[in-house]
Design goal:
The structure holds 2 protein chains of 2 kinds. Chain A is an all-beta fold. Chain A has strands spanning 4-7, 10-14, 19-25, 32-38, 44-51, 56-59, 62-67, 72-77, 86-94, 97-100, 104-109. Chain A starts with a strand and ends with a strand. The model of chain A has no long low-confidence stretch (mean pLDDT 94). In chain B, strands 2, 4, 5, 6, 9, 10 and 11 form a 7-stranded mixed sheet that branches. Classes of the chains: A mainly beta, B mainly beta.
Chain lengths: 110, 114
Amino acid sequence: KQEVTQIPAALSVPEGENLVLNCSFTDSAIYNLQWFRQDPGKGLTSLLLIQSSQREQTSGRLNASLDKSSGRSTLYIAASQPGDSATYLCAVRRADKLIFGTGTRLQVFP
Amino acid sequence: DAGITQSPRHKVTETGTPVTLRCHQTENHRYMYWYRQDPGHGLRLIHYSYGVKDTDKGEVSDGYSVSRSKTEDFLLTLESATSSQTSVYFCAISEVPSGNYEQYFGPGTRLTVT
């Protein structure tokens, strides 16, 4: 059974820091991996999707990497801002389904 | 933002009553999903649909049923609500262009069963 783990569960940093959020999964037979952002009381917003054949994807200050063989993905946030405060979720796709981690709750303070 | 709406957005109901949640999309995507989100469990798949009248179970399907009579609508029904079904319910959609399979989520429905 595929299990997805995110560490740390919560993170509080001052504005301007570069951050790394971690996602690990137990079964490397995935089609892709998706990173989401969730603001309190809101739905999920897709940030980045990495296909299983790719090593990384970038969007603005965000960079996501994927190492299938070791079952790991990282989300790198450069020059963090208070507006980045949210919960970040990773999810791996197997067949028709996504399997989610429990998220990292990020707070960036001024 | 993907055109996904959920109704109602909030609902309080009593144990034993039937409840139906609606997801509506304007993207004409083939796949639709229902998830529940609970503290400590993350998002868990309840049911999903891969076309009109084509549905399948997720990992937490007991106590739930779904129907999809039109591409744009996916209904989730709790036949007899229980307190353990108090949760936030999210609908999601995806298409499969070149295997990209990115999922887009609705705003959620907060359900409280008393």
